[in-house]
């Protein structure tokens, strides 16, 4: 079967615990480009933080479609200002206010994902109320400690973002999710990739929707898409793809969630799972486009 698009998560899928691109993944992506198969990073990261690990690989960086904030913002390939914004969604104002108030009342570390288009290009920051050095997979450019963040959000100084995050005790994560659902109803999409933080996007935003948007953009079919991920927030993408692969390093509860969904459990990141799955489904036996 010909593959029209290879879509993938970053952290734990092609990036190691230090945020570095695996050598096997880089080589595989280079081969996909040579074969003429489009590649797309579909992640919870900001656009700036998507680009960061690809800086040593300019050919990959230029070819990459980028869906950030779990699909709230999608950019086409290219460099700098030449990248076209293909899609953009933000939280609704009421949900934004309710999540901010809830986080403040609960004493949680709020993370505000700033994304703005300006004449000079795209401006992005991850603003956070308390230090985040201890948090897994939150590193790279654009991190700003802002102890007055709650006040800035509630005063209107900071507008509605594409995504908010709250750092939580994993033991209370499901309770926090239930609380926000009670406040916001179906106006928000709630996901988590790492157990100690919860992510909030506008209703209708998820990686599956982003995958369909990207596939339509390139003129392909989701039946001929390979998607690879390793976390709970990847599941809509894996289910939407013709071939969805959850890497073996996914947490047990995430692996259990795909039982009967037609999503394959593949090798782990440590076993070069991404490269092996792309080789099996998208490279072996396919002619160059």
Give an account of the 3D structure.
With 289 residues, the chain is of the alpha/beta class. 32% of the residues lie in helices and 23% in strands. The protein is built from 10 helices and 14 strands. The strands form 2 sheets. It has an 8-stranded mixed sheet, sandwiched between helices. Strands 8-7-6-9-11-10 form a 6-stranded mixed sheet. Strand 3 and strand 4 form a beta hairpin. The longest helix is centred in the middle third of the chain and has 14 residues. The protein is globular, with a radius of gyration of 18 Å.
Helical residues, percent? 25-40%
Number of domains: 2
Sheet bearing the most strands, described? Answer: 8 strands, mixed
Q: What overall form do the CA principal axes indicate?
A: globular
N- and C-termini, Cα separation: 13 Å
Number of strands: 14
Report low-confidence residues grouped into runs of 5 or more: none
Widest sheet: strand order?
A: 5-4-3-2-1-12-13-14
Assigned CATH architecture of the largest domain: 3-Layer(aba) Sandwich
Assembly state here?
single chain
The H/E string reads EHEHHEEEHEEEHEHEEHEHEHEH
Any idea of the CATH topology of the largest domain? Rossmann fold
User: Beta-strand level of the residues, as a percent range?
Assistant: 15-25%
Secondary-structure class: alpha/beta
CATH superfamily of the largest domain: HAD superfamily/HAD-like
- Write down the overall mean pLDDT: 94
**Gyration radius, to the nearest Å?**
18 Å
CATH class of the largest domain: Alpha Beta
Helical stretch count?
A: 10
């Amino acid at each position: 079967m010909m593959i029209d698009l290879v879509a993938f998560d970053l952290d734990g899928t092609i990036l190691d615990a230090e945020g570095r691109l695996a050598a096997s993944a880089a080589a595989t992506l280079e081969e996909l480009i040579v074969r003429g198969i489009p590649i797309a990073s579909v992640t919870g990261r900001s656009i700036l933080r998507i680009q960061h690990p690809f800086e040593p690989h300019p050919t990959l960086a230029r070819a990459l479609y980028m869906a950030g904030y779990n699909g709230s913002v999608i950019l086409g390939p290219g460099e700098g200002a030449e990248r076209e914004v293909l899609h953009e969604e933000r939280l609704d104002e009421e949900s934004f206010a309710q999540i901010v108030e809830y986080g403040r009342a609960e004493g949680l570390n709020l993370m505000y994902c700033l994304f703005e288009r300006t004449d000079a290009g795209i401006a992005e920051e991850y603003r956070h109320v308390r230090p985040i050095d201890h948090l897994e997979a939150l590193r790279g450019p654009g991190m700003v400690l802002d102890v007055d963040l709650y006040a800035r959000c509630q005063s209107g100084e900071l507008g509605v973002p594409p995504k908010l995050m709250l750092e939580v005790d994993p033991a209370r994560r499901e309770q926090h999710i239930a609380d926000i659902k009670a406040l916001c109803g179906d106006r928000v999409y709630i996901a988590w990739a790492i157990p100690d933080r919860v992510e909030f996007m506008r209703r209708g935003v998820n990686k599956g929707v982003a995958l369909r948007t990207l596939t339509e953009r390139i003129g392909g079919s989701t039946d001929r898409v390979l998607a690879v991920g390793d976390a709970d927030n990847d599941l809509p993408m894996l289910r939407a793809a013709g071939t969805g692969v959850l890497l073996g390093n996914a947490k047990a509860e995430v692996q259990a969630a795909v039982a009967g969904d037609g999503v394959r459990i593949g090798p782990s990141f440590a076993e070069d799972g991404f490269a092996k799955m792309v080789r099996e489904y998208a490279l072996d036996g396919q002619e160059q486009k």
